[in-house]
């Protein structure tokens, strides 16, 4: 049995993985037919290397970065790992926010000297707390757009405080790239993590953008590819697909942002329809993500009902043994465990249509009502 | 029909779900997470509560192409099943946690949640049969007596049974079921059966109870109060038990001795001859009925353990109790176990054994 994203379903989980367009698939398919190791010196190797380098240049141009600053990785997780493990000095603290993705937060937990800066009820970093912690740190990592709530951080202010404290500034930009304009040079960031499959590229490839002159150590060992920072043969077709998807997203970014924001607003308007519903990203947010709490429900029950109605959504938070855990992000924002366990994320992308949102806003109020009855039993 | 299939990760519940899918029902799989610390529960082939089991259940659901969820019932399981299990042993009784789980979790909390979410039925892989007429559902033993699990379902009420589905009631052998599972592409076809108590991964019930009740040794006495030996916690014994007594004083008549009583207050285990185990009457409390409650006196069969034979008896309903008079004496009847009673193969109801008489 084959399972793919079905046109009869409404897929509102783009922040988990956004489907590839036919043109991106075509780029990958064409490139897959080639061969040669891009590190090889012979003609076939040169052909492969040319594709990789063109992808690097194209991606860099989409980001306002230099091609030499783009280090391909297997995805956002590896990029985050490389940034934190590569920049951390054994003696100096690492500062992260309380709402980081596990690929940052779990590294933080491994280290003795990690400091966690809090966020306010809207999920925005407490800049004073952060400034105090970052003084003398090796690196600070704050996610640009939160993957669960879509809340946008004030990156320029964070970078300024990070540098004032003498630390390297890293941001997980996985949910930002393709939805917000990014000018890496202008941000002042030293390190920026990216992933292909959140913006319509293939799963299995991402990048760490490393500002020229930044001292970073490799955390994996091997043949020294990618400027000795990320060993392993570069997957030619995947990086080509990544670049094609990024270019496609950036080409229509402003118009898409406006379109998705309008769709998002229709979902946000449900807070006026569903008793007690709360929009957890009412502040500065990505147009592509909305996180809502429906008090008195179990998120898993709402998801079951939406799934049965043809809607693919998620909580956005981590699963343990197939069960959603109350969102650490929402807990950090001061929500109760019950509230965090009653929250869902809906996320949009290039293939999201107004019909998808029609279905969502039609089904959600009844699903919440039914889920509330299931809790009351 | 929208059916919620409880999937343990074992072969039975996987085939049960598969049969419902094949019959054209809209099936959703659900695995119950019952442990607060899944890694600490037994893993792999021996259990129903581990992460590996949840993954097996998920794989089966994927093969069937049905939605699958894991529901966390660990809090309720800890309160309603595990705590009850410990306190029953502490009181000198012998509980049946599987039956309790069916009564309080699977066919109560899970069923209620499922019905509230719009499911018409909850299906499990139990071996038992349901006969539905327009206004009534009757519960029967499975077609194959050796696999019959109607005993652990005997506590279900008419209202619960109305929402139940047991697709394996007609299965005649486990081999047949495993062949069917393999034909359906279910990877759990060869998975060994589970036998032990799922929340005691080591199988060491005595040790589990030691940890929770605090090991306190005491005397093993005969019916006249003479001390014959020492025990390492009365809760490690069950009425009717013969082995593992390690008595230092041999019986005067040279005959085997059995546990005939447990007294938590004096912390003693009483042993005696087999005839002292003979039970003629059973007084059982908290009766439940699979159909309408029965009043007055009637004849039927009673089964007092999961794998015991059902024996003929006369039943009398007295207020909130069930008085059971056995045609012939029975040996090794433990307070705390369920007396499930039948009309032929049909389950009539259940009650908890409170006291026995000669």
Report a brief summary of the structure:
By secondary structure, chain A is an alpha/beta fold. Chain A contains 13 helices and 14 strands.
The CATH architecture of the domain at 2-125 and 167-190 in chain B comes to 3-Layer(aba) Sandwich
**CATH homologous superfamily heading of the largest domain in chain A:** Type I PLP-dependent aspartate aminotransferase-like (Major domain)
**Assigned CATH superfamily of the domain at 2-125 and 167-190 in chain B:** HUPs
Architecture of the largest domain in chain A, CATH level 2?
Answer: 3-Layer(aba) Sandwich
Separation of the first and last Cα atoms of chain B: 50 Å
Q: Write the element-wise H/E pattern of chain A from the N-terminal end onward.
A: EHHEHEHEHEHEHEEHHEEHEEEHHEH
Calculate the terminal CA-CA distance of chain A, rounded to whole Å. 37 Å
Largest interface: A-B, 17 and 23 residues
Q: Strand order across the biggest sheet of chain B?
A: 12-15-14-13-16-17
Give the CATH topology of the domain at 2-125 and 167-190 in chain B: Rossmann fold
Our estimate of the beta-strand percent of chain A is 5-15%
Strand order of the largest sheet of chain A: 2-8-7-6-5-3-4
Given as residue ranges, the uncertain stretches of chain B (5+ residues, pLDDT < 50) are 40-48
Oligomer: heterodimer
What's the rounded overall pLDDT mean of chain A? 94
